[in-house]
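Need residues for this backbone.
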């Protein structure tokens, strides 16, 4: 057994396996239920005896079940879910860089305890890894009368404060903290880069496939009201009223609202057209308080100028969602509809002109990819670079044997070397080339955590990007033509917010 590590709330005892130590299920905040429901995270109750940290804490209540997520259903109506997990080398001569992971899952599902996020492979590269559970759905991201906004991200800030105050005892350097996340986790990273309450809590950031969905308060409130109505609450749903419902009741109501999103186009604009498997109905809220301004504007104004950033996306992001929906054949009419909804400025002909030979299925996939991930990711990169920041961009372009190219989330098994679980199913037959890309990617991530430089040129006028795949070259950004078209959009990455404000 390992010697106990003393934290500010009490001693914890982990375990050791094959040269890697781990401490699991450590509370960084009190359970967010009862009098703490819909409140900012509160300090956990201290303990005096040694706490067993050899098993994960329970996940936060899940709003959806996604393929690849290995989270067993929970019947606990009030789980002690605000916990984190730590992996560290058994021996290290000095304090090591720390990488703090925020999971994805459409702001509705996921947990730091997923086997896909085991920190062992990254730890062997010379870092500490921390994974975090946070509130999701209405509890984490609903805009509720009488409650603070962005509670899920405030949970993450509380976890980062815990890391600042305690990680040295586990062998980590609190002055070298890198936050990283994918999909909704990348959206949280983008938010944290620009939120005043997160300032000085981390020093580098990696955002893998940033999603578009950042909400204005009116739109976020409308979504929350729809969920409340689906749960049987009439009229305005405030914190006191919603607190009478269990998280699972709200999760069930959320699924019902998602299934009828297409009927809300007049009310919700483009949000109503995003599918249940790709477009979350919750996300960070630009409330003017916890998040004073949208992150793209904040980055352009220099909010994170001193924080080196890696960001990028997969080549075939949307292909995961068409596969989940079993939409293997897209008609010309379906492609035309998607182009009119999602193409920059609704210019379907202009979008079609840059891919004149593309079949309907390719057009459908590309325009959804660009709207949901490519544009918000690259616009964040350019905003930070324009402000004088240090920004490094990548694109993942592997083609696994028996797979479906490089869809959304295929970077997860490469990031953590967890090809045997979760989204590792997207790589049924890992080739030497795919394995090598993963090795290089993990090496770049950990080098960046240590030095702020992953090993390829920064984003600039020449649009140099690191390609993960094949020979792993550094080239001019392959999607430059589609990126340039996205920059003509009068609303850009903020289309959803502005449409709601205009009542579109």
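Answer:
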């Amino acid at each position: 057994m390992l010697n106990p590590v003393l934290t500010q709330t009490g001693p914890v005892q982990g375990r050791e396996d094959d040269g890697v130590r781990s401490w699991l299920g450590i509370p960084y905040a009190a359970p967010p239920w009862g009098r703490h429901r819909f409140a900012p995270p509160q300090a956990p109750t201290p303990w005096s005896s040694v706490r067993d940290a050899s098993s994960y804490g329970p996940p936060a209540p899940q709003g959806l079940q996604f393929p690849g997520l290995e989270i067993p259903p929970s019947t606990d109506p009030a789980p002690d879910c605000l916990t984190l997990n730590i992996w560290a080398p058994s021996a290290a001569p000095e304090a090591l860089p720390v990488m703090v992971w925020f999971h994805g899952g459409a702001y509705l599902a996921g947990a730091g305890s997923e086997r896909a996020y085991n920190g062992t492979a990254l730890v062997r590269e010379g870092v500490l890894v921390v994974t975090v559970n946070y509130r999701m759905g209405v509890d984490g991201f609903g805009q509720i009368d009488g409650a603070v906004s962005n509670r899920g991200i405030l949970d993450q800030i509380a976890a980062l404060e815990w890391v600042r105050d305690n990680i040295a005892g586990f062998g980590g350097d609190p002055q070298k903290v890198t936050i990283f996340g994918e999909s909704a986790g990348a959206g949280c990273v983008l938010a944290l880069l620009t939120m005043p309450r997160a300032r000085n809590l981390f020093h580098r950031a990696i955002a893998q496939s940033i999603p578009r969905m950042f909400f204005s308060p009116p739109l976020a409130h409308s979504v929350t009201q729809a969920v409340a109505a689906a749960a049987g609450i009439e009229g305005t749903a405030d914190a006191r009223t919603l607190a009478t419902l269990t998280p699972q009741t709200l999760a069930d109501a959320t699924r019902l609202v998602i299934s009828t999103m297409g009927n809300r186009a007049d009310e919700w604009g483009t949000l109503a057209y995003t599918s249940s498997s790709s477009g979350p109905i919750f996300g960070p809220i630009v409330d003017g308080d916890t998040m004073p301004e949208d992150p793209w504007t904040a980055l352009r104004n220099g909010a994170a100028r001193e924080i080196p950033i890696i960001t990028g996306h997969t080549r075939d992001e949307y292909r995961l969602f068409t596969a989940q929906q079993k939409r293997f054949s897209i008609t010309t009419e379906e492609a035309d509809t998607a182009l009119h909804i999602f193409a920059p400025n609704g210019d379907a002909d202009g979008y079609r002109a840059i891919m004149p030979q593309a079949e309907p299925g390719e057009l459908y996939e590309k325009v959804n990819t660009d709207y949901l991930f490519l544009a918000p990711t690259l616009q964040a990169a350019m905003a930070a670079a324009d402000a004088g920041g240090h920004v490094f961009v990548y694109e993942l372009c592997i083609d696994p044997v028996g797979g479906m190219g490089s869809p959304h989330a295929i970077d997860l098994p490469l990031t953590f070397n967890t090809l045997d679980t979760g989204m590792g199913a997207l790589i049924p037959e890992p080739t030497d080339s795919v394995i090598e890309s993963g090795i290089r990617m993990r090496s770049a991530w950990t080098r960046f955590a240590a030095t702020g430089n992953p090993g390829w040129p920064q984003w600039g006028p020449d649009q140099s990007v690191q390609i993960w795949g094949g020979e792993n070259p550094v080239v001019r950004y392959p999607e430059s033509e589609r990126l340039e078209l996205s920059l003509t959009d009068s609303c850009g990455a903020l289309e959803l917010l502005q449409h709601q404000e205009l009542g579109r």
